[in-house]
C-alpha cells in the first residue's frame, strides 16, 4: 500500500521550542543542536518539521562559538561545521592546520581519532578566521581554563542548546 500525498500546511501544528522540549535544528548540519524560543511547525501526518529562524547568520555564529568553547574533544561533524563556517575548502583548511586533506577528511569522518593538540589548533584557527570578532576576546579572556577544558578526559555536553531572545541568540 502506498502512502497518499498530502498537504503538510493543512496538517501542521504550531509549537514553541522550550527548555524541556527544544526544537532539534538538523539544518545546522550537526546532530546535537537544539533551539529554545523558536516557533516551529510539525505535520501531523508525515511528522516533518520546519521552523522560523530569525537572524540565521547570528545563530550560526553562536553555534560555532558554543562548539569552540565546549569542553572535550571536537566531533568530526563539528570540525566540518567550523571549517565550512569560515568558508574554507578541505584542502585549504588542512594546509592551515598542517595536515594533509586526507588526514582532515579522516578527522571529519571520525575514521581517525582527533588528538588534543590538533583539536586546539582547529579551534584556534577557527577563532582567527571567524567572522565573529568577539570570539577571540572570549578565548583570550579564559585562556588557560579554556585550553584545559579541551582535555580528552573532559566530557562534552550531549546537546548544544541555543536560546532565542528577540532577534538575538545565545548559548543556553
Itemize the secondary structure elements and their pairings.
Elements: H1 8-11, E1 12-16, E2 23-24, E3 33-36, E4 39-43, E5 49-51, H2 56-69, H3 76-85, H4 90-96, H5 101-108, H6 116-129, H7 134-149, E6 160-165, E7 168-171
Parallel strand pairs: 3-6
Antiparallel strand pairs: 1-4, 2-3, 4-5, 6-7
Helix pairs in contact: 2-3, 4-5
Number of helices: 7
What is the helix fraction of residues, given as a range? 40-55%
Strand content: 15-25%
First and last CA, distance: 45 Å
User: Given this structure, which CATH class of the largest domain is correct?
Assistant: Mainly Alpha
Element-level helix/strand string: HEEEEEHHHHHHEE
Q: Provide the low-confidence segments as ranges.
A: none
User: What is the total number of structural domains?
Assistant: 2
Question: What is the fourth-level CATH superfamily of the largest domain?
Answer: lambda repressor-like DNA-binding domains
**Can you summarize the main beta sheet?**
4 strands, mixed
Basic shape: globular
Structural class: alpha+beta
Round the mean pLDDT to the nearest integer and report it.
89
At the fold tier of CATH, the topology name of the largest domain is: 434 Repressor (Amino-terminal Domain)
CATH A-level architecture of the largest domain: Orthogonal Bundle
What is Rg?
A: 18 Å
Give the strand line-up of the largest sheet: 2-3-6-7
Count of DSSP strands: 7
Amino acid at each position: 500500500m502506498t502512502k497518499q500525498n498530502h498537504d503538510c500546511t493543512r496538517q501542521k501544528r504550531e509549537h514553541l521550542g522550550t527548555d524541556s522540549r527544544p526544537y532539534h535544528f538538523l539544518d545546522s548540519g550537526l546532530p546535537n543542536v537544539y533551539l529554545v524560543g523558536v516557533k516551529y511547525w510539525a505535520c501531523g501526518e508525515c511528522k516533518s518539521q520546519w521552523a522560523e529562524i530569525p537572524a540565521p547568520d547570528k545563530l550560526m555564529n553562536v553555534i560555532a562559538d558554543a562548539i569552540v568553547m565546549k569542553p572535550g574533544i571536537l566531533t568530526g561533524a563539528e570540525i566540518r561545521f567550523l571549517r565550512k563556517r569560515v568558508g574554507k575548502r578541505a584542502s585549504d583548511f588542512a594546509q592551515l592546520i598542517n595536515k594533509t586533506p586526507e588526514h582532515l577528511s579522516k578527522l571529519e569522518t571520525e575514521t581517525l581519532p582527533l588528538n588534543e593538540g590538533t583539536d586546539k589548533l582547529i579551534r584556534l584557527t577557527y577563532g582567527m578566521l571567524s567572522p565573529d570578532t568577539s570570539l577571540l576576546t572570549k578565548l583570550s579572556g579564559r585562556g588557560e581554563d579554556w585550553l584545559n577544558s579541551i582535555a580528552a578526559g573532559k566530557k562534552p555536553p550531549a546537546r548544544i542548546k541555543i536560546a532565542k531572545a528577540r532577534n538575538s541568540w545565545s548559548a543556553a
